[in-house]
Amino acid sequence: MSHLDRVRLSRTQRRRRRASIAPAAALVLALAASACGYHVAGRGNALPVEWKTIAVPALGNKTTTYRIEQRLTGAVIREMLARTHYRIVADEKQADAVLRGDVTSIETSALLFDTTTNRATAMLVTVRMSVRLVDLGSKKTVYENNDFLFREEYEISTDIPSFFEEQGPAFDRLSRDFAGSLVSALLENF
């Protein structure tokens, strides 16, 4: 066997070693990352496991948007029931924790316009609220955000009669999206 054949053989052997080390290294990195607390967003639960019941009384409304607090409260309750194991009640006396909040502002601004009619076709909706989740046993605040911000784009109809017909479903869609964002923030404690 010539010297060149031995060099080629050793290069091939080195490549094989590297190829066999790469999956092992990836496995070690994956295990290390999972040990550091990394997880898929929206799948964590930073709330105390000993809780069984969370009270969600009606949110307050400091805006001029009629009954928006009712839609948002209902959507938050549905989202918490769907994504957590907690029983949701309205009465604080029956709960381990309470989620209180006030809708502080709702703003809309036009993003896109139809060039032929000059009417808005997409709006940016911004909802701000103060929210606080308190452990009723210890009286400790588990989550608090005095400027919780939800911002999302929505398409709107340029047809005037259908625009008013769409207002109710649009608020329902906004409420669902808002509730998903809020419950994710609570569960991730972010």
Any overview of this molecule?
By secondary structure, this protein is an alpha/beta fold. It folds into 2 domains: 38 residues; 136 residues, Rossmann fold. It is 41% helix and 29% strand. Strands 1, 2, 3, 4, 5 and 6 form a 6-stranded mixed sheet that branches. The longest helix is centred in the first third of the chain and has 33 residues. It is globular.
Keywords:
alpha/beta, Rossmann fold, 41% helix, 4 helices, 190 residues, six-stranded mixed β-sheet
Provide mean pLDDT, rounded: 79
Major sheet details: 6 strands, mixed
Percent helix: 40-55%
CATH structural fold name of the largest domain: Rossmann fold
Task: Report the sheet-strand fraction.
Answer: 25-35%
Radius of gyration, in angstroms, nearest whole number: 26 Å
Brief digest:
The protein is built from 4 helices and 6 strands, in the order H-E-E-H-E-E-E-E-H-H.
Write the layout of secondary structure elements.
Layout: H1 3-35, E1 53-55, E2 60-61, H2 68-83, E3 87-89, E4 97-113, E5 120-135, E6 141-155, H3 160-165, H4 167-188
Parallel strand pairs: 1-3, 1-4, 2-4
Antiparallel strand pairs: 4-5, 5-6
Helix pairs in contact: 2-4
